Amino acid sequence: MPVVTFANTKGGAGKTTAVLVMASELASRGNRVTILDADQHGWLARWALRSPRFPQLSVHSVTDETIEAATLRAKKRGGYILIDLPPARDAVLARAIGLADHVIIPVQGCAMDAQGGAEVLDLLADLDRSCGIRIGHSVLLTRVNAAIPTRALTAAREALAARGVRMMQTSLTERAAYRDVFDHGGLLHNLEPADVSNLGKAIENAAQLTGELLTLMPQRMPRPQARKVTGEIDQPANAAPVRKLARAA
């Protein structure tokens, strides 16, 4: 039951998008996936409310007080646990990193994102130095132009490599499908190709990215990928109970 925490203290780095893209791909392969939404804006909880239900995928809003208990319950259910964090260096960040088997640090090719990622790296280094706790971690470059790498992106790669930071070989590319899935609900694989430009390229990128994640945190052999998924996402009936469930978790 691997726990993967997505962390960057700067907003807009691509944490939530990366969580949903990987969760969509994992679920499409038949894996059970639990998303723990610790962001106070609750973007993933909102996405779940407008989505059909899928029995293999559930979304739960959590807080600093409830995240440990929610993680324990998810481990009992089995599958993969993905934690989306708020853009802040606070108690829930430290707690979620402590729960993680691997930490993904999404970073766009800009200095501010790099600084937010560096704060997470510093926290991981402090855990290692002070407590002897070593947690695997990787930087994920996000919103990458699939055709033309920018100078800022190249500089970000070089700066991270100079620090000896492990980078995921696959980047999260800039795709319209990754925005549309939040608007329409459901999984990436359930979008209609006629309505979304380059959907096939987005699904291919998601598959490559998730495949690399599986090599970092193997649990079991993934089932063959399915292009369409039917069923239901475990979710509250409306927006208000989402927060109520989080407090009761």
Give the quaternary arrangement of the chains. Answer: single chain
- Broad CATH class: Alpha Beta
Estimate the global geometry from the Cα principal axes: globular
In the CATH hierarchy, the third-tier topology is known as Rossmann fold
Let me know the average pLDDT.
83
Tell me the β content. 15-25%
Q: Name the CATH superfamily assignment.
A: P-loop containing nucleotide triphosphate hydrolases
N/C terminus separation: 19 Å
Give the radius of gyration.
Answer: 17 Å
Structural class: alpha/beta
Most strands sheet: 8 strands, parallel
| Tally of helical runs | 9
Uncertain parts? 218-230, 236-249
Q: Please name the CATH architecture.
A: 3-Layer(aba) Sandwich
Structural notes for this entry:
Pfam families: VirC1. InterPro entries: DNA_Partitioning_ATPase (IPR050678), P-loop_NTPase (IPR027417), VirC1 (IPR009744). This is ParA family protein. Residues 227-249 are annotated as: Disordered. This protein has helices at residues 15-28, 43-49, 67-77, 91-99, 111-131, 151-162, 176-184, 199-216, 239-248, and strands spanning 3-6, 33-37, 54-61, 80-84, 102-107, 136-144, 172-173, 233-234. It is α/β, with parallel strands linked by helices and 249 residues long. The chain has a single domain, classed as P-loop containing nucleotide triphosphate hydrolases (Rossmann fold), CATH 3.40.50. An eight-stranded parallel β-sheet has the order 7-6-5-1-4-2-3-8, with helices on both faces. The chain is globular, with a radius of gyration of 17 Å. The chain starts with a strand and ends with a helix. Residues 218-230 and 236-249 have low confidence and may be disordered.
